[in-house]
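Structure first, sequence second, as always.
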């Protein structure tokens, strides 16, 4: 029987790549986005349905589930990919921006999980894949709010995986690295305005200069899609699926070294040794 996957945030980037990979490998795909646009996909198919879904709107989530079940009879895998980014100094981050991040990256994911779990329980099976970030493994400067919104989902998903095992439902994590080939950074929009006070400007510029010379390649959309495929199809009890050479570097540091060594290497990777006189910064984070 053909399996069905629902993915949030498929208008571009990782979500689009995930949808296209599963479609290419014979799955039914429910590609959801806030403003549905089937034209973003080059291939049209009876196995592809583009649906509206706003993860901050419970009625929208319920509607997508109902439409998905009506289209294909059930949902075997749910991928929470939709998210928004932010790089900022904590003291200058507006309260509204903090809440906006958590509404989408944290509460939206939780709401989607709470909505699809009863459906999966009735089916007696299912897999939930929550897409977080490499920043949950190796936390970098200027990402405190974003990291908090994603780290919350790491703990949430691990705990969820234990309780859902009672019903043969798996909860897993895909952890992408930085994403210069996607529009994720550009989509931060007005949230990036005024979030770096003058006293931070030299550090900010030096930090992004350092990130431009990272010791590994950055993550690609294809790597995230493949990691999601593994998370959606593998047997066993594995929870975390790092995606990209940059994420795997951080995962090795986090999980196979002592705390002192980990912290020393993280400072080496992310903390500038020279503070530059900075023009207006051009930040990017994923």
């Amino acid at each position: 029987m053909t399996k069905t996957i629902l993915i949030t945030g498929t208008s571009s980037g990782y979500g689009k790549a995930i949808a296209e990979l599963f479609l290419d490998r014979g799955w039914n795909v429910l590609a959801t986005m806030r403003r549905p646009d089937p034209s973003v996909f080059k291939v049209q198919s009876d196995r592809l349905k583009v649906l509206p879904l706003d993860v901050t709107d419970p009625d929208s989530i319920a509607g997508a589930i109902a439409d998905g079940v009506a289209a294909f009879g059930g949902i075997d895998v749910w991928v929470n990919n939709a998210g928004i980014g932010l790089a900022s100094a904590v003291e200058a981050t507006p309260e509204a921006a903090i809440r906006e991040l958590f509404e989408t990256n944290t509460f939206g994911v939780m709401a989607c999980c709470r909505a699809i779990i009863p459906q999966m329980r009735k089916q007696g099976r299912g897999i939930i894949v929550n897409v977080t970030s490499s920043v949950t493994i190796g936390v970098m400067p200027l990402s405190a709010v974003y990291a908090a919104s994603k780290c919350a989902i790491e703990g949430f998903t691990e705990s969820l995986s234990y309780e859902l095992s009672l019903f043969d439902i798996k909860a897993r994590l895909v952890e992408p690295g930085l994403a210069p080939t996607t529009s994720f950074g550009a989509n931060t929009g007005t949230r990036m305005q005024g979030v770096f006070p003058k006293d931070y400007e030299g550090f900010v510029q030096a930090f992004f200069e350092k990130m431009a010379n990272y010791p590994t390649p950055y993550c690609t959309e294809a790597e995230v899609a493949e990691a999601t495929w593994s998370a959606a199809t593998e047997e066993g009890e594995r929870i975390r699926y790092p995606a990209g050479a940059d994420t795997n570097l951080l995962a090795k540091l986090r999980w196979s070294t002592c705390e002192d060594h980990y912290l020393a290497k993280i400072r080496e990777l992310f903390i500038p040794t020279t503070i530059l006189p900075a023009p207006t910064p051009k930040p990017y984070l994923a």
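Margin note: The mean pLDDT is 92.
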